[in-house]
C-alpha cells in the first residue's frame, strides 16, 4: 500500500459511462498503434498484442474457467490474502472513503475486503472500474444486494477514462469531494510491466492521488518458482490458449476483417528472465508471456497488415516482481510504501 508523496451521474444509476460507449474506437486505436503500425516490423521493436482485447464477453467466460483451474494459483492466493488480512486493511479505511477497484473483473476477489468493511459497518462507496460492461452489470448488481453499508457503482470505461473523469471533477460530482480515495489494483494489473513502463503507469495514478489521505493498494504475484508459474499458465486442457486465441478472434471483430486465422498462428507460453540491462530493468525478475508466432506469411491488404513467417507478437506479459522490486517502483513513481501483507505460504502480496 502506498500514498502520494507531498504533493456521478446520479448515484441511483449503478453504472456510470465514463467512456465505455467509445470502447470500439479505443480498441481499434490500440490495435492500429500496437499491431498494425507498419513501422513496427522495420524497427524490430517488440510487438505487444493489447490485453484489453481479452475482455470480450466470450473472453470473460473463458477467464472465469481460468481462475478455477487447479494450478492457476494466483487468483485464489490473492483472494485468500484479502481474507487473511482483510480486517487489518479494512481498519485503515476511514468511513466515507471512496474505493476504486481498477479493472475490477468479476469482483469475486474484492469481496473478502468488502465483507470486513460491512461487518464493521464502515460506510464507503465502492466503484468497480472495467471496460467490460457485462462484468460491471453482473458484479455491481451482486455486490449491491450483498451490502447495506457499502454503496456500489460501476465505472464503465478505460483506465485513462477514469483518471480523466477524476481529474475533471466527475468523481466530486457524485461523492463528497473531500472523501479519501483508495485505489485497488487486484490481479497484478499495476506493477506488472517492464520496470520503466510499470513506473510510468503507477505515476499516472499517483497524479490523481491529490489528498494526503489517498492510498493505492496493489496485489502482485511475486512467485520465484519458474515451474509453478509455467504450469499455472499452460494447462493441459488448453483453457489459457483458448483465452489468448479468443483475444485474436475479437480483434477480427473489432477491425471488421479476418486478419487472424487460427491455423496461421502458434500460441505458446514462455518464461523469460530479462536481466538488469534489458529495457531499463534495474533488477531481474521472472516473466511469463504468451507468444503468437506466424507459421507462414500472413497478410491482410485491406488493413495494410503483413507479417513474415516466423514473426512473433507477445501478449499478456506477467512480471513477477518481489517486494524489493515493488519498493523500487513506488520510489520511482513518487509513492511512499506504507505496508505490505503476504498470504501465508504464498508469494502473492499486497503493498
Ligand atoms: C486480470 S483481470 C483482473 C480482474 C480482477 N481485478 C481480479 O483480480 O480478479 C483484468 C481486468 O482489467 C480489465 N481491463 C483491462 N484493460 C483495461 C483498461 N484499459 N481499462 C479498464 N479495464 C481494463 C479487464 O476487463 C479485466 O476485467
From TrEMBL:
Keyword S-adenosyl-L-methionine in annotation: yes
Gene3D superfamilies in the record: Vaccinia Virus protein VP39
Keywords recorded for this protein, A-Z: Alkaloid metabolism, Methyltransferase, S-adenosyl-L-methionine, Transferase
Family matches, as Pfam families: Methyltransf_33
Any one biological process term the GO annotation gives: alkaloid metabolic process
Annotated GO MF terms: methyltransferase activity
Histidine-specific methyltransferase SAM-dependent domain mapped to chain residues: 49-342
Matches recorded under InterPro entries: EgtD_Methyltrsf_superfamily (IPR051128), MeTrfase_dom (IPR019257), MeTrfase_EgtD-like (IPR017804), SAM-dependent_MTases_sf (IPR029063), SAM_MeTrfase_EasF-type_put (IPR017805)
Catalyzed chemical reaction(s): 4-(3-methylbut-2-enyl)-L-tryptophan + S-adenosyl-L-methionine = 4-(3-methylbut-2-enyl)-L-abrine + S-adenosyl-L-homocysteine + H(+)
Pathway: Alkaloid biosynthesis; ergot alkaloid biosynthesis
Entry's EC annotation: 2.1.1.261
PANTHER family named in the record: ERGOTHIONEINE BIOSYNTHESIS PROTEIN 1
UniProt subunit comment: Homodimer.
Family (UniProt): Belongs to the methyltransferase superfamily.
Protein name: 4-dimethylallyltryptophan N-methyltransferase
Organism listed in the record: Rhypophila decipiens
